Amino acid sequence: MRAHRDMTDVCSAVAGAPSSGPAPRLWTSDTGATWKGVGRLVDAHNILQTVMSQLTGGVFLTGLALALGARELLIGFLAALPLAAKLAQLYLSWRMERAGHWRQVALLSGIIGRASLIIVAVVALAPPSTFTLTLVVLALAGAALGSSAFELSFLTWMAELIPEPLRGVFWGRRGQIAGAIGTAATLLAAWLLGGASPASAAFPRSRLAVIFAVGGVAGLAGLVFLRCLPQPRRLHSRQHEIPLRETLSAPLRDRNYRQLLAFSAAWSFTSGFMAPFYLVYMLRELRLSFFVVGVLTAVTNIIMAATQVYWGRLGDHFGTKPVLRIGSYLIALFPLVWLFAAPHRIWPLVLAQVLSGLGWSALHVSLSNLTLKLSPQERRPSYLASFGAASGVAEGIAPIVGGAALALAQSAAVSSTTAYHVMMALQFMLYAAATTMPSWIGEPGGTAVGHLIRVMARYRTMDASCPVKLIFEHAYTHLARLADLVAREFPRDAEAL
């Protein structure tokens, strides 16, 4: 009883007092729930979840694998685990549509997935061997399955709680504080590791184990705040039972949603093709320290945190698809900039991280909202599961293919730098092809990307007393024309060529 009272006190302290002014209404029967209170609780969880993600993934997971003797193929396999585990969402969606209980499933799966990361920390203390790597793979597989179930149930829970017209700005605001604290955690952890190479015998694996353990504990602590969130207006998706085959096939029969799945799979494969190997490239080929890699990663995280609200508002006003397209164009330039980096010339990496932060911020906010927007309310779990499975399988296969290609190139006596450059050029071509696919997706109430740019141009250049703004108006006009041409969309306000 006392523990329950303590938990209630924590929830009340984080959620704060109810606001006296008008606020957006939530889809819940809990009369004490407020928009700001839910936002604070989700913020608290997101902060700790971001710390967990930063300390147990990215450069730290790659460094752990290298310190334990893993090669490119196994690193690709480790990167594929969280994504391939999303296949489990297909079955879980059917179970959740029948049973509901999204809140309970989210909390239980969160505990399983995040406790598995602490097991990884313990295993990392053992001497490097094949057996040690096997235990790490098994523990990470458990973490991936738990994370997959948590993601599906938590998204369904939030979709039943937050009204659709407000999701863009709600999720955009959620990333700001979490991104800043996650960045600080990354820099602190990278500083603790110092400049030692993860392949050297002097590499402090014990410190890396502590970092993983802190990440797992932070993730578990974040679940405390989710327990305080109110129940949504509905606890079940439907009252009658639907066969498993019909549940799995419904999203595939939806032509518009099928186009979204195709884009998500193509984009996920392209991004995952090189995702873990950029970190290997920085650590091995460019010979950068953990701290420098952490600073470069922080640049991306800071930009993402600072721009998510802006992209979310644009998506709420103009539709999510034009924001999605802008993000895809920025990300497509990312591998090209990497081609100019060298051990004594790392300034292109800063530009690449800026493009990555802007692009992924726009793409994450818009793609998640577009997925919710196109999924029918009564079948949302199965639609979200098909989306997660399509992107997860594609992004799970991609690093394995990429790792195999790099291993094959190295066995053929091709220099590592040349092999990485060829892979970057190939990724750019795949990105360029994938940016055309959103034109096949229909969004109710959406607008063309060129229209968004033109409206923003008129807003930014309304003050005619400033000659510089008039110059920028011409730049906006040509940028909008280019967007029309690339997107093959020609809105009514397009200028005559």
Distance between the termini: 72 Å
So what's the overall shape? globular
Look up the CATH topology of the largest domain.
Growth Hormone, Chain: A
CATH class of the largest domain: Mainly Alpha
Biggest sheet, open or closed, and with what strands and sense? none
Q: What is the number of helical segments per DSSP (H or I, 4+ residues)?
A: 20
The strand count comes to: 0
**Low-pLDDT segments:** 13-22, 492-497
Mean pLDDT: 76
Strand fraction: under 5%
Oligomer class: single chain
Q: Any idea what the radius of gyration is?
A: 23 Å
Which structural class do you get from the secondary structure elements? Answer: mainly alpha
What is the domain tally? 2
- Proportion in helices: over 70%
CATH superfamily of the largest domain: MFS general substrate transporter like domains
CATH architecture of the largest domain: Up-down Bundle
Series of secondary-structure elements, N-terminal to C-terminal: HHHHHHHHHHHHHHHHHHHH
Topology, element by element:
Layout: H1 2-15, H2 35-56, H3 58-67, H4 72-84, H5 88-99, H6 102-123, H7 130-159, H8 167-193, H9 205-226, H10 244-253, H11 255-272, H12 275-285, H13 290-318, H14 320-332, H15 334-338, H16 347-374, H17 380-411, H18 416-434, H19 449-460, H20 467-487
Helix pairs in contact: 2-8, 2-9, 3-9, 4-7, 4-12, 4-17, 5-7, 5-17, 6-7, 6-9, 7-17, 8-13, 11-17, 11-18, 13-14, 13-16, 14-16, 14-18, 17-18, 19-20
